[in-house]
Records
---
Amino acid sequence: MSADGGKATAVIAGAGPAGLTAALELLRRSDLIPVVFEAEAQVGGLSKTINYRGNRMDLGGHRFFSKSDWVMRWWQDILPLAVEPLEGDSALRITYQRRSRDLPVTARASSESDCVMLIRRRLSRILYRRRYFDYPLRLDASTLHKLGAAETLRIALSYARARLDRRSPERSLEDFLINRFGERLYRTFFRDYTEKVWGVRCQEISAEWGAQRIKGLSVGKTLTHALRRAFRPLTAIGQRRTETSLIERFLYPKLGPGQMWEQVAQRIASRGGRVHLAHRVVGLEHDGARVQAVAVRDEASGSVRRVACDQFISTIPVGELIECLRPTDPDIGRVASQLPYRDFMTAGLLLRKMRSSARPSRMRAANGMPPDNWIYIQEPDVRIGRLQIFNNWSPSMVADAGTIWLGLEYFCAQGDDLWSMADGQFLEFAARELERLGLIEPCDVLDGTLVRVPKAYPAYFGAYDQLGKVRAYLDQFSNLYAIGRNGMHRYNNQDHSMLTADAAVNSIIHDGRGKSVIWSINTEREYHEEVRADR
């Protein structure tokens, strides 16, 4: 049967940022009817917002920032910026840059509306040896005092040595980081945290991960940024020339990142598209050159139906896609099934207060809430990787403004000791870790919840170096487009995933031309927004 009464259709597997962007762009720019099948009961993928008793959780922390003008406009078209003063400024000037000129925002709305984007100031720190260091590191008096004169000298000498004797070629993430920060700084602030996140040594992770996630960040870039920030207007969010890790302002939906994708899903439905929740793509019919139909299982009833399609866009994990295609070459299936992932758990804890030592004295508050968006936990005696303070992303993320709503992030693998722990036991374990760090008293925990996210982070080790074989096989299908984070097994940001969706729509509109552009996004130091902005 046809997905939409005989009209030409594009079936899209997955309702995350990539899948929903593709669906809306197809409706805006083509005659194809997008039909989206999402296995979960909620849209947004990793960018969804979990609502627990009125307290909202952001899975991973999603800053709405992009060097792409198209992405920035796209977001503002869905959720306009709230007009509100920023830290006492009587007038708010919001611009972002495209080459040499400023572009105005596309729309503004009253901050009393829920359907708005807020401008947030980014603050993140590193907790290391029970002391707080600004992230990115600032070579100011505070940092030097905490490190000590002797350690500061060792870091400087190590950086100088790395600049004079670079590791070449850069094969591993360790090579990549030492070349940019020196071995001493790498071992102090990068190695242990990275290995906590990925569960393997930095020598086993491809340098490509650093090239895509850290890009041009280095000690030199950090120092240059520190000089520039002194002359940047406090209210400007245009930071195109700023490395992503260094940005200081970003946009954020008032009700969390999932609000963006819920709004997009509504627009898709209003234009005649379809978004089916709790429906999983479990099979594909093809002739080796084109996908002809998909098999979709209703997760509630268990029934499976056949849906014909003219185009197929996949954002599901590569291994699941290859399993649906059933290639005759067993090596393709082997590589796809062995692509590694890092799984993820967030424990939400609601507190009446925290210990005031979590705040610098100049920012001390009555309830001790840290001023950060998130805190990287470098301490070796706890398993927690990062701590989010949802109040500081948006006040509307918290049901009761008098409470503190935290997200404790743990990186794990399905089936390991963390993943297998019962929910209640895990929440107690998480609270004890914060107590050990000196951040809370267990008696101040009011409530909590736990969210498990499988396949959250595509990993760059193991069978990853053979991903090219899988891509070559997928490229044989003229009407199949693998996009997004899991669809390409690439650690993309939200905006990268949207750009891959846009590239796929461009290719579909132009009869398959330009398909290779999808795989070039987020591989260069500037990931093709300049080209995209000219459309």
---
Amino acid sequence: MQSLSLKFGSVVLIVTSTVTTLAVSPFSSYDPINLPKMLVLVTGASLLLVPLLANLKLLVGINTLFISSVLVLVSTLLVAFLRNPAPHAQQLWGIWGRSTGLLTYIAFVVVLTSTILLSFKSEVRSLRQVFERLSYFITGYTLIQAGDIDPINWSQKAMVATLGNINFMSSFLGLASISFFSRLLMEKLAITSKAHYLVLVLTNLFLIWISESIQGLAVFAAGASIILAFSIRRNLDFKRVIYWFLAIIPVGTVSFLGTAGIGPLSSFRQETVIFRRDYWLAGIQMTQENWFDGVGIDSYGDYYEQYRDLEAVVRTGPQRVTNTAHNIFLDVSSGAGVLAALAFFALFALTIAIIVKILKRGEYDPSLSAFSGMFVGFVIFSLISINQIGVGVWGFVFMGYVIGAGASQELSSHNLLSKRDSEKKVSNEHPDSRKKIGNSKFSRTISFVVTLLVGTLGFFSALIPFRTDMNMLAAVRAKDFESMKIVASRDSATTFHREKYMTLLLDAGRELEAYEFALSEYERNPRSGISLRIIAYTEQAPKGLRIVALEQLMALDPNNSELVTYARSLLNQLKLG
């Protein structure tokens, strides 16, 4: 049964990670990127859950620290979900345009643990090849978009592939280029094969360059440095690897500071990096003031205006806002608290420690070297970007492969695998083997049925917000305000859908309807900026309620001088009147 469930799990893992990256719905939903990806990810993770539980004993023996970190992470996410006043639907499914709520993070954890188990048992040998084949499609589609011959009429003409943003596209190509670079440097290949991989690396780097997204270059540089470390270790001792890292870390630090406009490389200044500083500082402030359980999973955007500093407002004006810290660790800490962030960080630290152990041992495994490099590239991505589902799913796969294959390699080096195999042979010769075969068939059937039920539950749980988004788009296209109201009133509707409905009402001159809906939205989410504005600026609203709304608007965006000045003026008029 274990062997069968592992084989099933390997197929599900490969299909889930691949289709998650590819899944889009450009014609039927407002969010054509993240909602379909969440649907695939959660469904696949649900199908992986039963095989994972069936082999849990094997997983427990791999790494105790990993198990502890996962348990703490999941527990703290659940505590944040239950304790925070942020809308539970928002925390469960995530905000519109991100979809990184509780369901997505639990799915990531399931993908991670399944990959550990499967790589430990050598059940995913083709995983690297699958990732590289997937990258062929992403590269090809990006080339089509670069040539402005994309058959899909996206809302923006940009090189985004199926990932929705040039930064995510460039990071994905950077990760793929690490694997190709590893083949060039670490494997004995025919000259035609080397030429093939060299063309792929150069093509990807060219696309990253013309996209003007430095994320992909940073990701590739970090991963390539790890591949070079493995190359050094193959021929020299571990001390030389240490010297290599001591040489490149200062270079990387100076380069990053240069993109922030600091130091000798300040000519490489990137405005997006400057903006990220504002987002990071706000995330740190949120974490400090809500250290136990955060502000709510994926609820950073509800609090950003309150926690951003004056410099962030002055830099480009108060209209620049964000719903993510652009740093995955800060997203976790601000959303679910310090303990969740520490557990999340421990998973990354554990993986880095395993890579160091592998380098110390000096044992060579082409795929393990490549996945180690890609994981380090993902670390850089995590520090400067968003946990975009199409890229993030592979980051957790890389992490799982390094932990699982690294543990398997260590076990092999201690000559324990042969002992385990001999024990299996002895158990297979048990006199009650016929009875066990019968029980195995029955348990297999039960496992299949339970897997199907859990997978179906996961599918429909992720389908709910996807259908809501599709229904809202259909209602807007039909200009059917009654249908819009019905959809926007659902628990599965997001702030985006509700704001869209209220904005369209105001544009159509239906202020009273907008005000009435704003009241209901205010009850659901007292931090809704558009609801507070409608309530504060609607003359038909009770004076006392308008005063409360104005005071709350100023409290939620204290450094926005334009808003504060206007709100105070209106507040004085109401009080005097």
---
Amino acid sequence: MVATVLGTLLSGLGLFFIGVKLVGDHMKQMAGRKFRQVVSRVTQNRFLAGGWGLVSGALLQSSSAITFIVVSLISAGLIQVRKALPIITWSNVGGSVLVLLAVLDIRLFVLYLLGATGLCFYLDLDKSPRYRNLTGALLGIGLLFLGLDLIKSGASALKEFEALRHFLDYSQHSYALVFIAGALVTFVAQSSTTVSVVAVTMAAAGLIGINQTMMLIYGTNLGSGLNTVFLSSNLRGSARQAAIFQTLFKCSGVALLVPLFYLEIYSGLPLIKALTEVSGSDTGGQMAIVYLILQIVSAVLVTIFSSPILKLLERLAPPTHEEALSKPQFLLDQALEEPETALDLVEKESLRLTKRFPDYLDSIREETKGNERMKPETVHQASQSLLKEMDGFMTDLMDQSMSRHSLERGIAVRNLTGLIASLEESLFEWIKIIHGNTFSDGMTRQIHMLAESMHAVLMSLVDALESPDAFNLEVIQALTADRSDTMEELRKSVLREETSLPYPEQQALYAITNIFERIFWLMRRIALLLQSLYSKAD
């Protein structure tokens, strides 16, 4: 009997968690750049942003996932924190849909849904790029609710266990214990909605009482807030502001409703519990309403105090300089309707990115050593974020209907951004190898000479991108002529002078000179591509 009940519960929980993960993962895959474009548009209106958050929360069933999607949009400079807050706020309310559905008898619907999903798999729709995420999400929904049904069956049988009844009787006199348990379980499960659904299901089965379930639900919100703090510990600047806001949202409703809970229990004043009883729902329905009330109260509180909250967020997580480097300044989604204009903007963004490349060498060059404005790692991370946005922009642009001339130019510009991305990667790799090793005086002098040479050519490359006339492009081609013989002679010279050069330093020598050659080759390729691009334009 015990093994059967536990097996039913565990299998139900397993199916439920698998379903939640499948739904979340596949919905996030469906929420690609198009999703982000919609978000950037709807945030122009506070009510549209809130409505979009409500819908997103209902679909993804994870306010934390939506928070971190918003964080990525803020990091990319697509939306401002102030305009993103309504999305986060109302996505939490949208997440209540799953809790409300958990108390309904939709078993027949779920069985038909699983049957239809199985047919989709039989027809190999799960392998179709167009339908695979939708098919996976439908499977997740079916497993999710099938798991809930098993949990209800197992929970009903648990009432027969005497030891469990004693524990539940004890917990009725220690609401704080239940509250803490809800927070801890949610911190581990990383979803207040998931834990609340299980709690509501157990309440509907009569396994736990109304008071206990209310405190458990309140605890899940606190645990979700703590989990957001933990997951966002590596964030900085405006991106961290969004994560902190989600934590404040989760805690605000708890801070108000927990005192009201104790006031209602010990004074008899009719408040939240009495309000749910008026609905006439069963225990499960009442607890689902409690969860909904908690989210709505939190949403109202953060909306009322939005101005002081924004000021607090700016104090706790002021914007960083890295944000300015990682955000596009010229890429506008509206420009996608005009391919030639969009390509001009990509070229401007490419120039802006390339202008920071000479700064990579500040930590190596004699005249700037120790005075670098930003660590190479920071510049690299910001550049990678910007390149990702540029690549997404170009992907959307190339999907547009364009003239033959615009298409040819688009291919050339995309090749250009690809070469610039490779150049950035190579520069960072070169710097990283130099910083990661200790060199002799003779080797250090050679590295300084290479850095000065590279800096001069990088500055010339910036000039060529800014003014791609024949003279500047010919200068780049002359400066980036084949360096293989020069590098080979340099390696031999160092090895002759440093007869006892350690093996790790010899490896570093070969890596530095090989990457140096690659950097010059990439700059030459860029110059040749620019020459081809602008000769066609003429």
---
Amino acid sequence: MTALDRLTRGSRTVALSVAVGLLAGLAAAALEGGLDLAVPRLVGRYGDPGGPHLFRPAALLLFPVLGGVVSGVLLGVFRPQGERRSTEAVIRAFHHEDGRLALVPAAVFALASVAVIACGGSVGPEGPIAGLGAALGSAFVGLFRPTARERRLFLLAGCAGGVGAIFRTPLGGALFAAEIPYRQPGFESDSLFPGIVVSVVAYATFTGLLGYDEPLLRGTGGLAFAHPLELLAYALLGVVCAGAAFLLRASLRSVTALARRARLPRWLAPAAGGLLVGAIALVVPQVMDARYQFVQGALDGTLFHAGARHTWLGWAALFGLVVAAKCLATGCTVGTGNAGGMIGPAVFIGGATGAALGALLEAALPGTIPEGLRQALVPVGMAGVLAASLRAPLASIVMVTEMTGSYGLIVPLMLVSAVAYRLGGRFGLNEEQLASAAESPAHAGEAIVKRLSAWKVGDLADRSWPHVVAPGASLPELVAALAPGTRPTFAVVEGGRLQGLISTGDIARAVELCDPQAPAVAADVMTRSPRVVRADDDLLGTLKLFLAHKVDVLPVVGEDGAEFLGVLDRATILGALQRRAETERDHLIREHAGLRAIAQEQELESLLVGLPATRRRTVQRLPVPGEAAGRSLREADFRRRYACEVIAIETAAGELITPPDPGRPLGADETLIVLPSRPAKEEPPRTPAGAPAGAPDG
């Protein structure tokens, strides 16, 4: 790839990123604006769900039902049956669908989530905007004939823009989108650059339209890690956060299973889920808090002043009740098919979990828990549950730091996120995540692609190409140079500069039209201005030229485009890949001895490929007979004595020797791969006395 090609590709990436970021920011602003209008006019009319008091008016029972009906109707009409939740759909599109994510279903899902949240459903807007941003990225870049890889990258970049804008976490959004495809720690590193650009532009667009609001939690700027002994409390918090992630996952799966058994109509199931949420909210109204007011009150203490005079043990019980109720309400909302995301509920549950542990520690060790530590457990708990539920520990650390401004808590954030992820990552919410990039179809053949991108044409070019002629070479000379069974391509070179190429087809046509009185020369036959490659071009792009121009060789020239350096043969590239694969295979077997068994089976299969299937089934492994140890196959007269034909010898180190050397002494710890000399229908070869029978090697 030339410098101009790299500049063009980089400019294209930046331009597309800016456009996708603008679209994602506008979408996030529209979603947030809709919530700002709808929430106060619906569920917000019946009191503040962020307060400490339990029990609310019976009218709350019907609001989630209304949201469920709207959600059920919208999703039933506009989203395909079996369509996954937003982040699950994004990850599936990345791994299995070449980055294609339909825009209309994603937009309808985001719209329906506004209705669900405004009516008190226990979901958040972050998941829907992640899906909508991803769909915008996929659809917009699709207008410019992208490669599958490019579409995948902008799918993740659009997701980063949506999350970065709605959470006001531009860096966290980029890391979230890059980390979320996998269960194990890993990144889609190629998506980071477009993801950062998209997230920054989306964040700037969002805040430019709605204004820069205060962080998600206020009053965390002064909190900081103060003493090593605090790590004990934080480590305990990591364990508790893993338990909260398990409870959230169990609630979701249980309700989902019950909804499937109930077999309610698709439009009715969300309403039934809303009814269950309303029933929970009658007792624990805090489950309807989509703005983290309850968690904020636990952090700054306003919750304690507004409530009854509880003991710390009573507050711990209240926070624990809210955590359990929120998990169940979230399961009832999402598990019955309502629109909405689970990132917001996970953040809320994490904050309440941290508040519960702080109150419990204060009750158990009165006067020994600093107020700063008890407050810090709230934002740190957010990161813990988020890391376990999303299986994205690094993104969770950065997101919570940006959301809350708690930069002084980076050490406990790291510890709690790591512990919670390690213990609770198995309870993650996203079923579409794969273990690692090695399992993703999106990375099939990636090692070969990266190798070809790194290799240069000059590395494999034949600089002593034998078929080089001068422009004045006669046609008979060219014909004489055609060896039987070959189809060489002649490079016409004069003064070290390429003049043209001559294929065997060119020679054949020239012979047919040749005038005996004026024989043609190379300059008359050659193809002028042939397609060339430069020595610093990468092989991946060069292979596309082979395919596009249907040629087997390409001349290699210098930077001026004319100096002849040699020729690149397509077969040379294949040979280099095969040699590299064999080298890596040898290294792999040396590093991982257990893989030798697979290599042996491959060698044996290739050895038997010419045998009929009936004879393949008679192949046996036999240990070297005691009387043959130290003797060669010839000396032991093995074929006649045991009615077997030895086709390979397996050494003690696991190496297959094939064909076997009849004069090589046999080791007592070696194994013989044998075929019976008699037809398969006769009795099998005699097992040497005292040796275990070999199992058929089918």
